[in-house]
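Final report, section 2: Outcomes. Of the targets proposed, DUF458 domain-containing protein is the one most frequently requested by collaborating groups, and we therefore present its record in full.
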Amino acid sequence: MSNVKTNSILIQAETLARGADSTFNSPSRGSMTLREVIDDIVSFTNKDLKDEYKIVIGTDSQENHNGVNFVSAVVVHRVGRGGRYFWRRLYKSSIKNLRLRIYEEANLSRALAEEVIELLAKSGGLPCSLEIHIDVGMNGPTKAMINEVVGMVRGSGFEVKTKPDAYGASNVADKYT
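The predicted structure is given below as tokens.
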């Protein structure tokens, strides 16, 4: 993929992640702003400081007759003891090419992760590790893209998980696409 096209995708994803309606949904708390999500993460992770927590961010998409439905999830996993999640939906005009759609998913997750880290830092720091889950795996049509998409996300400084370990994208976000 050319650098021009890749840079264009990065810019589009950052614009979608930061400039779009940033309303998140929570199964237990309803509609929330990203600031409220961050406050909830801080409160949740401060309840039991001896537990280990992970923040997971993943995006999934589905092409439909109106374009592409992207759902990004922020998961706070209390390791061994459950967790909670928040999700938001973004729409974009049709992307017929699977490779470009997977790049868009990864870039939306990366941009959201950067925003979450920035807001958590303003709230006193990141209470735990952060992973980006991308919806690619060794089986199916995305297997040829694993190295390049994982490399792009790792190159941005994030830990990456792919299928079958990418539950943030392939289970949580997928539930709402």
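The radius of gyration is 15 Å.
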